[in-house]
Amino acid sequence: MTRVLTQLELLRELEPVAEANVNRHLSMAKDWHPHDYVPWDEGRNFAAMGGVDWEPEQSKLDEVAKAAMITNLLTEDNLPSYHREIAESFSRDGAWGTWVGRWTAEENRHGIVMRDYLVVTRGVDPVALENARMEHMTNGFASPNEVGMLHSVSYVTFQELATRVSHRNTGRACHDSIADKMLQRIAADENLHMIFYRNICEAALDVAPDQTLAAITDVLKNFQMPGAGMPNFRRNGVLMAKHGIYDLRQHLDEVVMPVLRKWRIFEREDFGTEGARILDELGTFLEELEKQAVKFEEMRDRSLARDAARRERTEAAS
């Protein structure tokens, strides 16, 4: 029977990989400044300083773009909880500690620039946004998975890539070149973060194949985005899925499968008896996920067709 490595043993075994990937990240990451991505000349005072408070007609964003921007920003706002999670799962020493600090500093820019953009352009109600931030951050974030290094690194691998896809599609949905450029910049950060975690997880598969596969499978079967507990998440999530910001098909085809292929999960020959059983479990889960994605696409197409027909009737009547 394969021995299960402790958290401390895993961290020690994988620290050289973490150090190499921290150095790789630092060599590839590009410094950027949030203030360079905000159209400051569009800004004006609110009523408290003699100006005018927000009204819905001031926003250039449609309902889909608003929902996506709010969801993505509130997700970024929970950074203190994410920092705590990875600091507890990894370590604050050596390469692990360097990564935790650097990752946190880079992620913090995302919330800064998105909020500045939305407030300056009056894209969403700033009072409602602040109230939602207070509620969401007060509730915090707790991982839906077991506590531990392998579950954490597996989760953030998929989550960072999912966030990249969501940000990139949100930029397009805003129909604003400034927002698109800003969210492209954020998405590039998320991609580099994903690569760090993906490489750590790949090394963990070599060190503890069955143990790592169990964590990956558990994460995928229980996966949910980190914003799941925020106000209006269900409503906004449905809007985002319906209009191609982030849906089940994208989750499967653009997030889950590319990572599993990179790890060559179904080609590996180093799994033991338990690993082979878990691999079958993962394969069954992915087949079911494919069926769910097809079902979702059919439902979405019918819904969009009904919406289009309704618009046509309204336009004809007017």
TrEMBL record:
Binds 2 iron ions per subunit. The keyword Repressor does not apply. Transmembrane segments: none annotated. One of its GO terms (molecular function) is metal ion binding. The keyword Lipid biosynthesis applies. Homodimer. This is Fatty acid desaturase type 2. It comes from Rhodococcus ruber BKS 20-38.
